[in-house]
Design the sequence.
């Protein structure tokens, strides 16, 4: 079993709709949770981080964390074609970051 | 502020050659991480340093791989001898402290023929 699991997609979303991405992790000691966006041929770019249970909003992005269920999600509101990318969930226990395999999102105009 | 700087951006070399990848972390960041990304295995942590000291190298695939951090502003990842299966994108990342967001360099795309 992978430590951090994501649906590989592609997740196809109409422009203007909400994209919902999910991530589960296996280590209950995980402390910090991150979402990175990676365009094809580019490096991962941090878009959100969350440390406590609940929701955290930043612009069109909302991260949700439920430690009891070992579940973290990312919502992208008003999806734009420029949001088409692979979204990587990452989880830390201590100082090490473990990445999921990523979910490919495709926003169609 | 300059981000994490990696060089070279692309490297093509023949099997058996030595390859050296370089990284300059963000100034003031105490942690430096080396990752490898492939289609098959995704993004994998190879090794990380804290204050120039290697802390965890359990992700280094074999003895052909070595990494050093002689000072706070420079790190190298060396592969000797290189093999075709080492072909991947290698990323360097840094963070201010443990558990904080990591910032990635542009990566080195390595092809071993």
Sequence:
């Amino acid at each position: 079993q992978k430590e951090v699991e994501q649906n590989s997609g592609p997740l196809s979303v109409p422009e203007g709709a909400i994209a919902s991405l999910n991530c589960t992790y296996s280590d209950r000691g995980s402390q910090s949770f991150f979402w990175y966006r990676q365009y094809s041929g580019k490096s991962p770019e941090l878009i959100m981080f969350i440390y406590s249970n609940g929701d955290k909003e930043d612009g069109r992005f909302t991260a949700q964390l439920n430690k009891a269920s070992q579940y973290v999600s990312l919502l992208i509101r008003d999806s734009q074609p420029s949001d088409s990318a692979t979204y990587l969930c990452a989880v830390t226990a201590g100082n090490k970051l473990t990445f999921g395999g990523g979910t490919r999102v495709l926003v169609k105009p | 502020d300059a981000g994490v700087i990696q060089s070279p951006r692309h490297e093509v070399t023949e099997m058996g050659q030595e390859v050296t990848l370089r990284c300059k972390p963000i100034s003031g960041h105490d942690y430096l991480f080396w990752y490898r990304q492939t289609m098959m295995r995704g993004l994998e942590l190879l090794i990380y340093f804290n204050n120039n000291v290697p802390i965890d190298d359990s992700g280094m695939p074999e003895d052909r791989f070595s990494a050093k951090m002689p000072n706070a502003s420079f790190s190298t990842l060396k592969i000797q001898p290189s093999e075709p299966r080492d072909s991947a994108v290698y990323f360097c990342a840094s963070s201010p402290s443990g558990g904080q967001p990591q910032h990635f360099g542009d990566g080195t795309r390595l092809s071993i023929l």
Q: What stands out?
A: Chain A touches chain B through 20 residues (CB under 8 Å). The radius of gyration of chain A is 13 Å. Residues 37 and 87 of chain A are 5 Å apart (CA to CA). The first strand of chain A starts at residue 4 and ends at 6.
